[in-house]
Amino acid sequence: MMKSLLCWPEPVIRVQSLSASGILEIPERYIKSPSHRPSLNNDVSQPQEVDVPVIDFQNLFSSEQGLCDEALRCVHNACLEWGFFQVVNHGVSHELMKRTSEVWHEFFNLPLEEKQKYANTPATYEGYGSRVGVEKGASLDWSDYFFLLLMPLSLVNQNKWPATPASCRELVAEYGGEVVRLGGKLMKVLSMNLGLEEDSLLNAFGGEENVGACLRVNYYPKCPQPDLALGLSPHSDPGGLTILLPDENVAGLQVCKNDSWITVKPVPNAFIINIGDQIQVLSNAIYQSVEHRVIVNSNEDRVSLALFYNPKSDLLLKPCEKLLTKDRPALYKPMTYDEYRLTIRTKGPCGKKQVESLKSIRQSD
Ligand code: OGA
Ligand code: NI
């Protein structure tokens, strides 16, 4: 298995180059089977009535008990019902968010040769990439990305981050620091809502110094046949929590809710938060990761910054003892995140198949 992760199974094609070539029909590899195409479950003539909850994060730390309790309850319900929510007043500088997003727009607008210096391999995925998964002949998504490590500090190598634009490394380091801090606060909020000590989830992830964090900047070029393709196929995030800065001007993220796809409307200056598979494991499925995907359009490119807040990769993760009862024993066997993420890194996005298979292993023990 490790050997197959050393190189890509076929020549890498940059989706941005395909898009820029002016083709009117997308290559076969990007055409989804009819049941996976975006238009099917998505009747645009029917405006959606529901939307992902928006939380005022500041209220969670209010000295006014009523406000604080109400905000905690909102987060809890969002975790139970959606696995997704947006946060405003989250404490991260809006100016920094804007500048970091802009610098990545600039990076993707650099000439191809400049970006190719950072071409990645499936060995670590760090750098400039155009696919996830190494299966030859697999269906591909309409996006390129840049993936880099932010935490733990011992694994950070800024030489692998873009040297141009000149401010990129500094901005990414500052942005990473602030968003990781927000991730730590979210972990406390989720712990309290689960009835655990406030440091429980964070400690299970290895503690503040040891958690993993990485940034995946997604670039979704405009697509001449958006009804046939997806920017990112349905998946749940394998890690702990995801803190997404979506494109201010272009929607695209869709969340699966009651078997239909809801397009998230980004609130200005908000982050979109979602539960990953490892929180599902630790909470023994009280909180569950939720499938999501990205649609593309023919008019505009879209850039999003996904910061993944993950466990220390060599720790064994299993459901918290305190959440186990006789009626609801542990649903998942212990596994390290290193082992867990090999599946998505090999097979690419597969909905919620992986975390669900972990469950069935345990139940048939
Ligand atoms: C991801 C993801 C959503 C988006 O990177 O895992 O779900 O809007 N991104 O780009
Ligand atoms: Ni995701």
From TrEMBL:
Pfam families registered for this protein in UniProt: 2OG-FeII_Oxy, DIOX_N
Cofactor annotation: Fe(2+); L-ascorbate
Classification via SUPFAM superfamilies: Clavaminate synthase-like (SSF51197)
Highest taxon in the source lineage: Eukaryota
Keywords, in A-Z order: Dioxygenase, Iron, Jasmonic acid signaling pathway, Metal-binding, Oxidoreductase, Plant defense, Vitamin C
Fe2OG dioxygenase domain residues: 210-311
InterPro entries: DIOX_N, IPNS-like_FE2OG_OXY, IPNS-like_sf, Oxoglu/Fe-dep_dioxygenase_dom, Plant_2OG-oxidoreductases
Keyword match Metal-binding: yes
Oxidoreductase as UniProt keyword: yes
Gene Ontology MF terms: dioxygenase activity; jasmonic acid hydrolase; L-ascorbic acid binding; metal ion binding
Biological-process GO terms, alphabetical: defense response; negative regulation of defense response to insect; regulation of defense response to fungus; regulation of jasmonic acid mediated signaling pathway
Record-linked Gene3D superfamilies: B-lactam Antibiotic, Isopenicillin N Synthase, Chain
Catalytic activity: jasmonate + 2-oxoglutarate + O2 = (1R,2R)-12-hydroxyjasmonate + succinate + CO2
Transmembrane stretches, start-end: none
Similarity annotation: Belongs to the iron/ascorbate-dependent oxidoreductase family.
PANTHER family, alphabetized: OXOGLUTARATE/IRON-DEPENDENT DIOXYGENASE (PTHR47991)
Protein name, entry field: Fe2OG dioxygenase domain-containing protein
